[in-house]
Every structure is written in structure tokens, then in C-alpha cells.
Amino acid sequence: MGTMPVNKLLLSMSIPMMISMLVQALYNIVDSIFVSQISEDAFTAVSLVFPIQNLMIAVGVGVGVGMNALISKSLGQQNYKRADKLAMQGLLLNLISFVIFFIVGVSMPTLFMRTQTDSNIILEYGKQYFEICLAMSFGLFLELTFEKMLQATGRTVLSMIVQGVGAVINIILDPILILGLYGAPRLEVAGAAYATVIGQTVAGLLGLVLNIKYNKELRIKLSNLAPNFLEIKDILFIGVPSILMASIGSVMTLCMNKILMGFSTTAVAVFGAYFKLQSFVFMPVFGLNNGMIPIVAYNYGARRKERMHSTIKYAVIYAVAIMLLGLLLCQVFPDKLLKIFEPSKAMLDIGTVALRIISLSFIFAGFSIVASSVFQALGKSIYSLFLSLGRQLVVLIPFAFLMSLTGKIEFVWLSFPAAEIMSVILATVFLRRLLKNLDWK
Known about the structure:
Low-confidence stretches: none
């Protein structure tokens, strides 16, 4: 972390995470491909549940981000005892998160779906998916916690293996459980949910084993699982803004689904398809950031200013390059990308225009995503929160609602590039202020 050439270090830590994130994006796509073979209603139902799935991941990742940044900083300061405590307190927080989502999963599926749709078919599909994914989310929270522990100590290859194994299991089980192959019952949407939670559980248990066996900088000690409110406070101080930031994304998706439902259920399906496709662009950037965060946190803790600045510079260059590639694909091949979801003619017509307009936001998003992760690494997640709040709730949703009043769905998609332009301006101001005012003593 402190001696390897910065570009080489960033790539060595990020590439395994980028591959891991691409595998994650692949299994999200595979889910949708097989669900779309059932019907457009089934695909729409899964799309409507997506914000709650995203919220669950946001909580687990947010706790992990706080834990990760503090562990890396503690290791940079050679405070190994505190690093051990932080790891177990992060695990404790995510176990509590599982209990909360379990309760929501068994008690609120009908209520949630009723707020989204009046279609009984979509309602029933959505209830199944909602209940299974939330009530059986134990593996998800284990997986997210143990991945972050491995990332915090630079073991990104092992983190990639954890996520990759879960994704591969999901991909294998999807067609078997959804379509009823090889003698298995045809479970349709419920099969997609079961495939997801089984893959997450196996990945979580594998993450525990790999941490115990290979992560020598951190010791998994049950005695450190007892609540330590000082460490919990420090984790949440960094993690809660990250959770809120990602939760804002869930609120944005819920609101956008409501706006689009005013046009048609097909418009909602298009939005769901966009989210699956854009993950192939955004997930590698998130993987890049996962490799960058511990490097920035470590070198700040070790007071190595130039290394930290170089890490940020290279991360921005790579993120923008990835986003430009994604923009090119969406502009040239929008119809071919959509055809993997068995679209109706209406879905294809709406979706082709949507992808070309929304992808214009990619030009600006790369820099903003890296800046947001730098804020988290340096313990200033509040900046990330303001950035996400401004982009998604202050600009995107009001703009989309106003454009929907025109009756032209094409104008609604313009809200995405408009929001990203505002975001990149804010990110630049915040990042310059933060780097200028850091204490290097």
C-alpha cells in the first residue's frame, strides 16, 4: 500500500474487483433474461422490487465502507488491535441489519407492491420476489461484510473469488429454478429469488472461511463481537452518509417508477432494463473505487500526500475511459442491447430512445463517482451524501416530473444528463475544498 508504484498498485487492487463487479452485473442480467422469458409483467414486477433490493445492499455496503476505511486507516497507523475490533463491529451492525430486513420481508410484501401497481399479476410476482429476497438475506449481509474485510487489507483477488462464486451459483441455478429444468419445479419469479439468496449464502460462508484462513492482518474473534459503542459510532459516522446516499438511489427509483407508470407498465420495464444494462458500465467503476478506497485511506493515514493524490488522478482517468466506452455502446447498439430481454415492439421503441438519451449522462458520471469514493475514504462521507441528494432528488426527480407533464416520455429521460451535469460541478467544488484543507501533520 505504501511502496508499490501507484498506478501498478491501483490496477492490481482494482482489476480483480472490476472483474468481480462485472460478474455481479452478469448475474443480474441473467436473472432478467430468464424472468423476461416468463412475461413482461414478470420482468416489470422484478424491476419494481429492485429499489428495496438496492436499499438492502446500500445498508450492507454502507456499513462495509465505514468499516473498510477505518480498518485501512488503522493498519496504516499500525493499530492492529483497533482494526480487529472494527471488523467485528462491522459484522455486528450487518447482522442487526439482516434482522430488520427479515421483519420487513415477512410483514410488508403486499403493502409495498400495492404502492407500486394495480395489476394483480405484477402484484403476485412482486410479492414472491420481495419476500424471499428480504427474509432470506442473511447470506447477503455476510457476503458484503467479509468482502469488505478482504478489500481493507488489499486481498482483492480473494474478494473477487467470494463474489464470483456467489454469482456463478446464481447463474447456474437461475434457469433451473425459473424454468424448471432437470426435474426441478418451475418456480418462475420465485426461482430467480431463490437462486439469488442461495448464491449469496454460499458466498458469505466462503468469505468467512477465506478471512479466517488468509486474512492475517485481521483476527475474527467472537469477543470483539460484543457491542463497542465508540467503534460503532465511528463506523456509522462514515457509513451512514454512504447508506443514505445509496438509499436516495432507491427513493429515486421508486419515484421514477411512479412517474413512468403514468405512461405505461412498458415504460417501467424499459427503466428496469436500463438499470440492468448500465450496471455493465457502472459496476467496473465501482470495482475501481473499491480498489482505490483502501489505498487513499492507507496513504492518508501514513501521511503520504503525493501517493494519495496520484491514486485519485489515475482513478479519474480510468473511470472516465470506462464511461466513454459505455456511452459509445449505448449510442451505437441500443436496440441490440435491449433485445436480450425479449422486448415487445413498444418496449424496443421506447427503450432505444431512452438508452441513447440517458447514456449522455455517462460523460459526467465517472468523475463524480470517483470523487464520492474519495470523500468516503477520507472520512467525509457527508460530501457524498450532498452530492447524491443534489443529483437524484433535487434535480433528477423534479425535472423528470415536470417533463412528464408534457406527455412526452422522451423528455423524461433528459433528467439523467441534467442531473449529472449538476453533480460534476458539485463534485469538483467539494473535492478541491477537501484536498486543500486536509490535515497532513
